[in-house]
Amino acid sequence: MTERGAWWREGIFYQIYPRSFQDSDGDGVGDLTGIIHRLPYLLTLGVDAIWLSPIFTSPMADFGYDIADYTGIDPLFGTMADFDALVKAAHDGGLKVILDLVPNHTSDQHPWFQEARRARDDPRRDWYIWRDPAADGGPPNNWLSEFGGSAWQFDAATGQYYYHAFLAQQPDLNWRNPQVRAAIHNVMRFWLRKGVDGFRVDVIWHLIKDAEFRDNPANPDYHGGRPPHEQIISRYSADQPEVHEVITAMRAVMDEFDDRVLIGEIYLPLERLIAYYGKDLGGAHLPFNFALLSAPWHARDIEKIIADYEAALPHGAWPNWVLGNHDRPRLASRVGAEQARVAAMLLLTLRGTPTLYYGDEIGMHQVAISPEQVRDPFEKNVPGVGVGRDGCRTPMQWSALPQAGFTQATPWLPLADDFTHENVVNLTADRRSILNLTRALIRLRKAHRVLVTGSYRPVAAQGDLLLYRREGDGEMLTIALNLGDQPVSIATGGSGLDGEILLSTWLDRDGERVAGTLDLRGNEGVVIGRVM
Ligand code: NOJ
Ligand code: MG
């Protein structure tokens, strides 16, 4: 398949947080066999690829983002046979499988780090980032861990500090060392040979740090109530120019195999983000576009985000959009349950690959976590400023059965208290539910190729209205989204908006003619079809 029609351009991604999707062995934690049981659900939903957050051997200090063996499956999730069975079952159903690659850091329990910390002259030493103490014995510079405190951990046995951008149990690998690169490349090949269709690369913009370890500048905009690492700007600790050559080399490994995708996790302003497509698009196929995760939910702001992104994309680069993930508050709580439906229509009608976060399709909200229920190390280290990620990682709500059908045991995180109503079984039966809306949107995207391949054209609008067109291949669709809760009425005469409603977020207007005026209810979005 040529890149133009590649599956990762045409398809819809679905992120699974494996701990919370489906438990099969009664330990209260989701696992691979559980995911296999739920593949039929994903197939009826209509998504094309699943991305699994880490399933590798891990002491779980950061729930799998601290890896002790890159080519092992953690027993909590199952066995390698379970993994192979999952890939086979997914592929049999036509679903691609994307794994999480975490190359920036390992667990402190990884044998590489255990060896590295043995002695200053250990051959493994330079696989990590070691520095002498500052003159006063303190950390080598002012870099801060994203999870609180200094990013440097003193190792008394060898008298040096090691660097960790996240937890002290997650020492950063030294990507300036060619042996590290080769080792991770081999990890990639291991999974690619097993038939894995791609990777989402964790904190890819962190891989290279300043060669001189210069102090980061203070952030003049920092204010209390924000996580402490925001007191400095990570000018020297991340997004270094040399990172691009590291990514090019990763991409070359992907290109040894047919038809695989490299996705980069990147939280950077737009102008920095797009650099991750790489020179001549030889970097990440899809640098994750997180602009909507923190967007003020107003039509003009969103319109500008889309316009800026479309304008900034390098020639030939493929866009992508994300509304939620395992690190950010749930969409339905951010924008409200009603707007979550409008947001779903936005995500699935924009130009570019959409990534759905598990549970957003049933409108799962951020679950309140009491202090004694906190599991997230970020919240434990930096309590009280709202950084906790447990509330967006709660178990999938399958049914009204005990524990929502997620487990027979006590789930590792509490279930949302509304699960007896808000669950897959009920929402499937409810014709107008957000779940059936999501299914309808996915069907629409598949039935109208223009939603995948057509151009994006903004249409001028005021107030809470967001208007745009998708155009190409002899078809034109207009998308009209009301981001407010008041009705709006637009004169369509002469503006080319007339046509037929193909889908409303309320699922009750299919086939309605639009001629002269378009009336939208509060919190309603519609897709209007007009064959050119
Ligand atoms: C980004 C991941 O999405 C997050 O969950 C994790 O804690 C950090 N990277 C560290 O790996
Ligand atoms: Mg389990």
Automatic annotation (TrEMBL):
It comes from Bradyrhizobium oligotrophicum S58. InterPro entries: DUF3459, GH, GH13_cat_dom, Glyco_hydro_b, O16G_dom_2. Belongs to the glycosyl hydrolase 13 family. GO terms for molecular function: alpha-amylase activity. This is Putative glycosyl hydrolase, family 13. Gene3D superfamilies: Glycosidases (3.20.20.80), Golgi alpha-mannosidase II (2.60.40.1180), Oligo-1,6-glucosidase, Domain 2 (3.90.400.10). One of its GO terms (biological process) is oligosaccharide catabolic process. Residues 15-393 form the Glycosyl hydrolase family 13 catalytic domain. The keyword Hydrolase applies. It comes from the Bacteria. Keywords: Glycosidase, Hydrolase. Transmembrane segments: none annotated.
